[in-house]
Amino acid sequence: MIDLTVVKIGGNVIDDTEKLNDFLDAFSNLNGKIVLVHGGGKLASDLAGKLGVQTKMVDGRRITDAENLKLVTMVYAGLINKNIVAALQARGVNAMGMCGADLDLIKAEKRSNTKVDFGFVGDVTAVNTLALCKQIECNSVLVIAPITHDGKGQLFNTNADTVATEVAVALSRFYKVKLIYSFEKLGVLMNAEDDSSVMPVLSNVKCSEMVKSGKINTGMLPKTQNAFYALSKGVEEVVIGNFVSMETNHSSGTQIVNS
Fold first, then answer.
1. CB of 41 within 8 A of CB of 104?
2. Residue numbers for the site described as Transition state stabilizer (predicted)?
3. Among 72, 8, 4, residue whose Cα is nearest residue 32
């Protein structure tokens, strides 16, 4: 099988110009077939304040009502996506920006069976691997925004970690996939207050222990859940770390293992 790398870039990196440039420099040096999935950062919240659109958060997760859906679609699939594409083009990368509605790439359904109504937040139901593979085989580097659709005209805001995971799982039928969750930290930390306490390896047993003790929570919890899910569904390798984790033959970040 041909190697393919799926990289997810976090919102905190997008918010920091220096970190974003470092990431894009490293990303542009990757070899082989690549897909990039990006999050949203705080730009949508900042713009909401300027436009007078109320933003509601529950446990760090956005409530996406009709007005906020318009906003995140404009910001995620528009401004952020095209800025990343333009920056990659400037680095010689043949990037093409898309969201889940384009080419019917990613279908989703409204999240249900939760205590909180998150509004137009969608959970992925299908990935159009044929469309993805056609673009990848044209040597395009896809840059995917986490806006999905239901195939009936309704857009959804979907967690970017989940989008990256589902894309990686779908493509693992055709490629040898490495999935990298790239964010502002060096990896999964044993001590959240100590940036140097990076765990080189994280097993599902150790992860469960850290979740129970509260060492893994909030944003890292869904990231690790997605990581182990990806491994269980055929993704060859999963790493959580910063942009250095993408560099060829560079051992860094946290390797996720099923044991």
1. no
2. 8, 223
3. 4
Q: How far apart are CA 81 and CA 74, in angstroms?
A: 10
Say if residue 7's pLDDT is above 80. yes
Helix (H, G, I), strand (E, B) or coil at 184: coil
CB atoms inside a 10 Å sphere around CB 191: 9
Return binding residues for substrate: 40-41, 62, 157
Whether residue 100 contacts residue 107, with contact meaning beta carbons closer than 8 Å, is answered with yes
Q: Name the token pair of 24.
A: 């894009």
In the chain, what percentage of residues exceed pLDDT 90?
Answer: 76
- The helix or strand, by DSSP H or E, that contains position 134, with its residue range, turns out to be helix 129-137
The superfamily in CATH containing domain 2-257 is Acetylglutamate kinase-like (3.40.1160.10)
Kindly report, residue by residue over 131-144, the tens digit of the pLDDT: 999 999 999 999 99
pLDDT value at 250 more than 60: no
Give binding residues as ranges: 40-41, 62, 157
Token representation of residue 142: 């896809």
Annotate 85-113 with b (16+ C-beta within 10 A) or e (fewer): bebbeeeebebbbbbbbbeebbbbeebee
